[in-house]
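Q: A small favour: would you put together sequence and structure tokens for a protein?
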Amino acid sequence: MTDNGLRAGDLLGERYRLIDRIGAGGMSVIWRAKDETLDRLVAIKVLDPDLAGDERLRELARREAWAAARLNHPDVASVHDFVRTTRRGQEIAIIVLQLVPGDPLAEKIAMGPLPWQEAVRIGGRVATVLSVAHRAGVVHRDVTPDNIMVHGHKVTVLDFGIAARIGEPDDDSTGATFGTPAYVAPERLDGTPAQSATDIYALGVVLHEMLTGTVPFRVRGWEDVANDHGRPPAPAVAGLPRPVVEVLQRCLRRDPHERPHATELAMVLDRALAAPPRRWPRYAAVGGVVVLLAGFGTAWWLVDDPASPPSASPSASASPAPSPSASVSATPIPAGSATATVPASPRASTGGGTRPSASPPTIPVPVTPTVDEALATALETVDEGLSKQEIRNDVALDLRQTIRNMARNPKTRAQLDEAARGTREKIASREGEGSLSAGYAARLRADVEQLIAAIAKKL
């Protein structure tokens, strides 16, 4: 579709000033805009004026506002306003939404499968949103990676543009105007009333795609949606808990009555993350380190020092995932210690040789964050600076886009060097003009250098 004459600087509804276009769909375009009445940034979804004369499509726009407004949940983009106005003699409908930071889940998946813990966490958050929606009588009907935004640990569900009331007749028997084929449940083509199970099927497809990088079934068009694809595949992912595999396969069953409810799905996924990791054997616990000495063919087996207080095992004290600035040690280290120490006396010896007085010092090994982790850290710094008014609104938006482009676009080291130089110059320029404070400029420089190192490691 076209913008139909919309331009940056246009004023819609006598209060929303368009800034730049940030997205487009089959029936609408999305603009970043400023609410000049309340002095805040918003997202404006504008129905294509060429379609605005279709009462059915205008009703879809109104329904999106209705559906999202019913869901008071932090993981749903809030609806601020719904306006019908006239532009150049044509009636247009606009939905004013919360401007959500972050990146579409589709972009993360395009970079490869996600770690199963991250995929399960995101899936659990979306399942919780769907549980709230279904209890409110709303079916989303377009759950796809493009409609899920991820920003650090925050997950936001977008676009209730084709939402329906549970039990409402589905008057589209072909699915031609609804959803993306790979995520559409087969019963949608049968014209059955709107039901929550269709959202569960779509989320199952998304979860499988996050875990493996591909959708579970080969679906290119609506004829493929109608085909029976047989038993849902189990994702072959190392370490993925069995309950997750089982509930995912249930989500993808052809019969909607065999799929789990959103509440059950969220519970299974949350429990998979909360399950304690496997405990190490006793001889590998922090207080009882096994040391093998190669010199003189002597092995020392060292056990707990009876005089020492019990200490937690690494499985109990380790954090779920390292932060970008975290480091790991070559051997387990008790909390509060810089090095691992050898107990006072060995349990037994199996030869001559001399017992060493202490274990070798532990040298921390730096951990280079992934590109996604480093990118999230830099974007969080921008958002924090914006919230504390240390970075001007328009500068924060510009910096976020610049940093994202640097993370996504370079294919060669030369391209990375050029993008890095431009990013460094932009930070220096913004600091010099006073729109970026010195403190946040310094933090952002460190974050950007960390991101550059992560990108270079992949090239």
Remarks:
- The two ends are 36 Å apart (CA to CA).
